[in-house]
Amino acid sequence: MFSAKLDGGRLICLADGYKADELRQLRKKQRFYCPVCHHEVDLKVGDLKLHHFAHKPDSACTVSHEPESLYHLKGKRLLYEWLKQQRIKAVLEPYLRQISQRPDVLVDDGKRKTAIEFQCAALSMTEYQKRTSGFLKQGIQPFWMIGGNRFKRLSNSFFQLSAFHWQFCEESGMPPRLVFFCPEQKAFLILEHLIPFLTNKTSASCRVLPLQQTDLQALSSIQKPSPYQLEGWKRNVRSFRMKPPRFLSKDARQIAALFYENFQIPLPFFPSEVFLPVASGSIFVQPVYVWQGYLYLFLMKHSSFRLKSAVLYMNQLVRHEELKLRWNKREKAVSAVTEYIRLLHDKGFLTKENDMYIPARQVSPGLRLEELLKRDARYFSE
Ligand SMILES: [Zn+2]
Fold first, then answer.
1. What residues make up the domain containing 296?
2. Domain named Competence protein CoiA-like N-terminal: which ranges (predicted)?
3. 40 C-alpha to center of ligand 1: Å?
4. pLDDT, tens only, 297-310
5. How far is the CA of 9 from the centre of ligand 1 (A)?
6. How far, in Å, are 81, 185, 268 from residue 78 at the CA level?
7. Do residues 52 and 74 both lie within one domain?
8. Domain co-membership, 74 together with 216
C-alpha cells in the first residue's frame, strides 16, 4: 500500500512523489501506522522497486490483501496517475469505514462514485461478492480490472478463462466483457463477445488500448465483434473434428454416449448444429456441444415443438444437474435456449408454423468429414 499514518496522525501518501533519500531520512525519525488497523507498518524504500508500506509478517489487518505484489502496486499507481491526468477526482486506497473496505482507487466524477479494484491475485467467489455488495450498499459502482498477469491467449480469438474470470461478469446485466490492465505493457486489454467453446476455452474479440491514448470513458464503450472471431470459431471446430481431445470430462463422455446410442456417431462427427456460436450461451459451464447437444436430442425426438417445451426440458436438465449454470440466473439460460432455437430457424434447420417449430428431417447422421466441414462453413459465416 501507498498510504500510512505518522505519529501525529497525519496521513502520508507515497504516490505524491517522494524521493528515495527523503524517505530514508524520514524513516530514521518516524514510525508509520496502518490507517485501518493502526498497527505499525514498515516503509520499504527501493531504487528499483516502488516505495511502499508493508504490514509486519504476523499482522492480521482486516482489509490488507498482502503480500501485495510489485505488479499490483505498479498497476494501481499507474491507474491513479492516469485518472489524475484526465482531471478526474480520484483517491488512492481510501478506507471506507462503514463497510471496512479499501478499494485500490475511488473515482468521483461528480455524478457517481466508482471503486476501481485492480485484481491480480486469486479471489474467492465469497470475497468477490462481499466486496461487490459492500460497494453497492454505499452507492458506489465497483469496476473490476483484472491484472494482465491473468490474461492468457490460446490463439488469435481464443482465451483461457476460468471461474475466476467469469465471476466478474456476474453482477452486470450487460453481455459479459472483461477489462484487463497490464502495468508492464501500460495498456488495457478488453475482451468482449465472450462465447465459450469448452469450459475454460472461450472465443472473444480482443482490443488493446494503450494507457496514454485511452480515457476512462473509452473503457466502457462496446464494439462490434471482430470478423476474426467467427473465422476463428470455424477453424476451431475444424480442428476439433480433425483432432478431437484425448481426455473428456464426465459431461462430455455422457453426451458422447447419448449421441452414439441415438445416432451412432462419435464426438468428432457431431452435427454442426451443436457447435453454434450463441452469445448468451456463456451461462452454461459445459462445452458448447454438451448444452446444445442435449437440446439437439430434444429437437430430434419431436416432429414439432413449442419454444416453451424446449425451455421446460432445459430447466429439467438444470434441476438434474446435467446442465450447470455459471451463475444462478435461470432467465439467462432461457435467453440462451431462445437464441439457439432462433438461430437454427434462421439457418433453415427449423421451420416454423404458427408457434410450432419443425425440425428438418433430412439431417442424416453419418455424414462424412468433408460434408460436415462444408455444413460447418455454412453455419459459421454471416
Ligand atoms: Zn492494517
1. 249-379
2. 16-64
3. 8
4. 999 999 999 999 99
5. 15
6. 5, 11, 47
7. no
8. yes
